[in-house]
């Protein structure tokens, strides 16, 4: 890449335009945190609602926002594939860059070219994967350019050759005392724990949970961390996942986390399907009071984590603003594939689906070790182990 390319990229950014830039793994669409580029990015990604990841030149860009936990993690892993979700009570970042709860997801990128771009630009930029909604992120500039053109945008690109791909960045919310591991990624659990010990924050009170806070909500002023499970009609898979999660939360005494479910094509107020109700009842779970809810932008924005049964559901959640916190349930649990729809099929299929969903939910909420300890007791999250 030539030096003048960086100058051109900075000029485009300062003119309020978007560019294509590299990250450690894939190419991204980026722009300054101003009205015009953020509107362009929302159009390019065919979504609204903000919550874009923000790339910053250094930890000093968020001085006063990190806290002790965030500072320890930033010192250990920045630059690199760790995204920190920080509270922004003073509104230092543009509203469209913040999530519905007012938080902002930031990181110092590991790619040298992007760090040089930030240094020369002198301001943070957005970073949203360069791809059409629902398509894989671009590993080459050619793929990124085609994705932009498909939405009617011609962008300048910093071409750094093919990128390696891989998992999205690890996503952590440091919190005021205890961190929340929202999404596992290249930075693993043991590395995060070691960084806290190095930073003098050792002890079980500061250990990581999987997508949930470990704080007792009765002693915290922070709102509950809400998880929404998503399927199509919100009458089978996602209600079963919600019921399993409620049971786990009650059995384990998990304070500070709430759960719900929604459907991408749900008719509001419909009961769970008969097959789902029968399978749930056999497992000691209650779906009799369930009523379906449509997945909307408001639901997406009010959720800290959105777990989807299939890629089509994930695409809908992304379009509604869930880019930073919507994922496939199977991928979050370390499994592969999608959860197939049991609607209209036999009771055996419904039981198998509940078994599958429960295993995944338990891994996400408690981690693979605790999930294996539970065996196949349906009332504690029955499920096959990963790889079965």
Q: Tally the beta strands.
A: 14
Q: Structural class given helices, strands, pairing? A: alpha/beta
- What is the name of the CATH architecture of the largest domain? Alpha-Beta Complex
Distance between the termini: 46 Å
Under the CATH scheme, which class of the largest domain?
A: Alpha Beta
Instruction: Tell me the overall shape.
Output: globular
- Secondary-structure element pattern, one letter each: HEEHEHEEHEHEEEHEEHEHHEHEHHH
Strand content: 15-25%
Helical amount: 25-40%
Distinct helical segment count: 13
Radius of gyration: 21 Å
Largest sheet: 10 strands, mixed
CATH topology of the largest domain: DHBP synthase
Provide structural commentary.
The chain is α/β, with parallel strands linked by helices. The chain has 2 domains: 3-171, DHBP synthase, CATH 3.90.870.10; 214-380, Rossmann fold. It has 13 helices and 14 strands. Strands 7-1-2-6-3-5-4-8-9-10 form a 10-stranded mixed beta sheet, with helices on both faces. Strands 12-11-13-14 form a 4-stranded parallel beta sheet, with helices on both faces. A hairpin with a 6-residue loop joins strand 8 and strand 9. The longest helix has 20 residues, at 347-366. The protein is globular and about 65 Å long. The model is unreliable at 202-222 and 369-388 (pLDDT under 50).
Task: Give the secondary structure arrangement, pairings included.
Layout: H1 3-14, E1 19-22, E2 27-30, H2 35-44, E3 53-55, H3 67-77, E4 82-87, E5 103-107, H4 112-121, E6 125-129, H5 141-150, E7 156-157, E8 170-173, E9 180-183, H6 189-198, E10 209-210, E11 225-231, H7 237-252, E12 257-263, H8 274-282, H9 297-301, E13 305-308, H10 311-319, E14 326-328, H11 329-332, H12 347-366, H13 368-373
Parallel strand pairs: 1-7, 3-5, 4-8, 9-10, 11-12, 11-13, 13-14
Antiparallel strand pairs: 1-2, 2-6, 3-6, 4-5, 8-9
């Amino acid at each position: 890449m030539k030096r003048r390319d960086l100058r051109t990229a900075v000029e485009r950014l300062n003119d309020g335009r978007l560019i294509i830039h590299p990250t450690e793994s894939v190419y991204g669409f980026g722009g300054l945190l101003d009205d015009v580029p953020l509107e362009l990015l929302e159009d390019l990604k065919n979504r609204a609602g903000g919550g874009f990841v923000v790339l910053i030149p250094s930890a000093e860009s968020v001085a006063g926002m990190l806290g002790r936990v965030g500072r320890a993690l930033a010192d250990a892993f920045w630059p690199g594939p760790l995204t920190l979700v920080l509270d922004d009570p003073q509104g230092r970042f543009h509203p469209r860059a913040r999530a519905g709860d007012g938080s902002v997801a930031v990181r110092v990128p590991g790619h040298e070219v992007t760090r040089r771009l930030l240094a020369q630009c002198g301001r943070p930029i957005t970073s949203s994967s360069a791809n059409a909604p629902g398509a894989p992120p671009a590993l080459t500039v050619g793929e990124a350019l085609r994705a932009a053109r498909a939405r009617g945008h011609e962008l300048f690109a910093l071409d750094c050759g093919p990128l390696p791909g891989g998992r999205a960045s690890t996503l952590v919310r440091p919190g005021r005392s205890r961190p929340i591991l929202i999404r596992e990624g290249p930075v693993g659990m043991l590395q995060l724990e070691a960084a806290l010990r190095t930073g003098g924050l050792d002890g079980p009170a500061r250990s990581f949970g999987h997508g949930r806070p470990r704080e007792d909500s009765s002693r915290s002023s922070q709102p509950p961390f809400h998880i929404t499970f998503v399927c199509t009609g919100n009458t089978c898979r996602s209600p079963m996942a919600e019921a399993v999660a409620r049971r786990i939360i009650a059995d384990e005494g998990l304070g500070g986390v709430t759960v719900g479910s929604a459907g991408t094509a749900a008719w509001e107020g419909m009961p769970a399907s008969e097959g789902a109700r029968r399978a749930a009842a056999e497992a000691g779970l209650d779906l009799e009071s369930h009523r379906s809810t449509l997945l909307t932008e408001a639901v997406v924005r009010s959720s800290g984590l959105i777990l989807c049964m299939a890629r089509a559901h994930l695409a809908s959640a992304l379009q509604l603003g869930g880019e930073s916190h919507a994922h496939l349930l199977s991928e979050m649990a370390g499994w592969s594939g999608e959860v197939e729809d049991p609607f209209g099929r036999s009771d055996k299929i419904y039981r198998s689906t509940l078994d599958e969903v429960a295993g995944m939910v338990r891994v996400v909420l408690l981690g693979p070790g605790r999930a294996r300890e539970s065996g196949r007791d349906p009332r504690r999250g029955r499920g096959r182990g990963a790889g079965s």
